[in-house]
Amino acid sequence: MKILFSYLALLSFISVFNCSSFLSKSMTRLCGWYSETLNATEEEIRENLTYYKSKDVECINYGTEITNYPRAAKIAQKLGLQFYAWIPAMLGLGENKKWLFENHPEAYVVTKSGIHAHETPIYGVSHYKFLCPNNPIVRNFLKEMYNNISQIPEVDGINLDYIRYIEQNFRKYNPDGDTCYCDYCVSSFLNQTGINIKEHQDPNLVQEWADYRVNVITSLVNEISEIVHSNGKRISADVYPGPWQSTRQTRQKWDDWDLDMVFPMIYTKVFHRDVNWIGAQTREGKAKLNELNRTTTLYTGLQGEAMNDEDFKKGVGLAYDNGAYGISVFKLNNINSEKFEILRNESKNFLKKKI
After folding, report:
1. Within 13 Å and on the Cβ side, how many CA atoms surround 293?
2. 36 vs 228: CA distance, rounded Å
3. How open is the CA angle 240-147-245, to the nearest 5 degrees?
4. Rounded-to-integer distance, Cα 262 and Cα 239, Å
């Protein structure tokens, strides 16, 4: 870990006081998530980002290995794109989490039924080797990682993903997905409340336990946010819809998070909803932010790759009509030209209405 972070520190060696303040840049309307392909060349990256820029996409939540960020960010900056490092927080796999996996099995979540994510992926999903967001080793690791990445001069900010607990089913309690019951979490909660959570058959009925986990995520996000902001950069997060749903399902009470941008992932295919749900969820999220006088900018996240063009157009319109400042699309790699035109035209129509 020290070698990796030292490498990043050298790449990004620059005083905080001398770094450009990306916080002063204007907010963009059209964003998208993009995954760099394996062994991508500079030419390939430049060609893809140039194409998205030509389609009026203004900011990229960019996913790649950590050591590749300086190269990609420089290309994006020259093209005039805002560039956010898109890095899953709680997924304990990949090159950047190798140190944790090899040295700290206790850093991974344990379910109510006793499944240890270090050994067995939760729900049988291959990448669901979740880290425990409450574990001090994990929290320090993540804060150091995001600090170093946000110091890379050309990186405009951090896009947090998987900054949550494993999702729960509302209708039926499943102990195989309920986390975290590692020794640290159980003892910490017992010391704080006097409640032995392991004695409860359905711990989700214990309000103190629900609040405890919500606070674990909120405090971690806000600690990372303070670090990123101290480097003069912005921070955003990909979240479950809500915040009513996300607070209960993934412990993401994101209306309490100190974010510049939030991307509720209002994915109709994932959540088995019709397109009208996009408007309802956008309206709920925006209303909650307004109620709390939050300055966080809301972008409706749409799973464009899983929507037909007709539903996508309606979804973009519903998002704007119900309070979204902009749209973020998953995933730019898989979006057809028709959807890019829909994004461009619907955004222009929305801006005309505001004049």
Report:
1. 0
2. 23
3. 10
4. 7
Strand spans (E) along the chain: 30-35, 59-63, 82-88, 157-161, 234-239, 261-264, 297-302, 326-329
Residue 270 inside a domain? The answer is yes
* Band (12; pLDDT cuts 50, 70, 90): very low
Q: Are 343 and 47 in contact (CB under 8 A)?
A: no
Q: How many domains does the chain have?
A: 1
Candidates 270, 268, 264; CA nearest to 283 is: 264
Pairing of strands 59-63, 30-35: parallel
The verdict on residue 24 lying in a domain is no
Report yes or no on 170 lying in a domain.
Answer: yes
Taking the C-alpha atoms of residue 311 and residue 66, their distance in angstroms, rounded to an integer, is 35
d(CA 122, CA 141): 22
Confirm if 288 and 264 have CB atoms less than 8 A apart.
Answer: no
Gap between the Cα atoms of 161 and 263, Å rounded: 10
Mean predicted confidence (pLDDT) in 39-56: 97
pLDDT tens sequence across 273-287: 999 999 999 999 999
List pLDDT tens digits, range 60-103: 999 999 999 999 999 999 999 999 999 999 999 998 899 999 99
d(CA 321, CA 350) in angstroms, rounded, equals 8
Q: Please, are residues 22 and 157 in contact by the beta-carbon 8 Å criterion?
A: yes
Domain containing residue 149: CATH number = 3.20.20.80
Element (H, E) at 143: helix 136-150
Cα angle for residues 324, 327, 328 (degrees, 5° grid): 135
Domain for residue 10, yes or no?
A: no
Q: Is 354 helix (H, G, I), strand (E, B) or coil?
A: helix
Residue 7 CA from chain centroid, whole number: 24
Residues in the chain: 355
For residues 215-249, one letter each, b for 16 or more C-beta atoms within 10 angstroms of the residue's C-beta and e for the rest, the string is: ebbbebbeebbebbbebbbbbbbbbbbbbebbbbb
Share of the chain above pLDDT 90, in %: 87
Domain carrying residue 282: 30-354
